[in-house]
Specification:
This protein is mainly α. The protein has one domain (4-81): Flagellar protein flit (Methane Monooxygenase Hydroxylase, Chain G, domain 1). The protein is built from 3 helices and no strands. It has helices at 4-27, 30-50, 58-105. Helix 1 packs antiparallel against helix 2.
């Protein structure tokens, strides 16, 4: 199990990365966003693998809660920028599937 100071360092790294994810999402830099998300996922996996302990000094626990709130806020902001883009991709792909189905039904392109 990771000691609380090590856990805090991981949460702080996750918070820095999540803020960068917001910047990437605002800029529409999807490749950068994906890379940052992978880095955050690796840190999250470290917390899961090593065990996340609630034990520690009261100040450390409050700091951890503040970092988690910031990370969640950043996540909501990233979603605010990515969900419209994802909906466009969904519509595009759905439209292509329907077009292929219609073309196949009527023998177009055969």
């Amino acid at each position: 199990m990771l000691p609380m100071p090590a856990q805090l360092e991981i949460y702080e790294q996750m918070s820095v990365l999540s803020a960068r994810m917001v910047e990437a999402a605002r800029a529409g830099d999807w490749d950068r966003l994906i890379g940052l998300e992978r880095a955050v996922a690796d840190l999250r996996d470290t917390l899961i693998r090593e065990g996340d302990s609630a034990a520690g000094a009261p100040g450390e626990a409050e700091r951890r809660r503040a970092l988690i709130r910031r990370i969640l806020s950043d996540d909501a902001e990233v979603r605010r920028h990515t969900e419209p883009w994802m909906e466009q991709v969904r519509r595009f792909l759905t439209g292509n599937v329907r077009k292929r189905q219609v073309d196949q039904a009527y023998g177009v392109g055969s």
